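Comment on both lines for my students:
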Amino acid sequence: MPKGNDLTGALYYYERPDRAIRYVFKQKLVASDGVPGDALGMLNRLASDGKVLIAGNLSDRKVYVFVKPSKLGGWEEAAKIEAPDECESFVETIAVSGSKIILSSSTYELEAC
């Protein structure tokens, strides 16, 4: 494992300027409370309007909502959504449309509850 890689995870945002051939790096997004092993970004979904980004991973009990308020501004962490109880673990899929988010899980640990 490379030195300093603690698997906290990050998302790297790039844009392609009008008529440009290459994408340009703009911003690194990390969770405000990220810890080693979180692997943020293993699963993510960008809203069709390009203003909301949901990011999480397959084994954690939380996802992060990032918003891009304007075309000129950067991404900001707007919310953290946690699984409703200790027996749930999401996320396997993410759907986002406007102000609505659906997170799915096929895992419900009956023995732990």
Observations:
- The two ends are 36 Å apart (CA to CA).
- The chain has no helices and eight strands.
- The CA atoms of residues 15 and 23 lie 5 Å apart.
- The chain has one domain: 11-112.
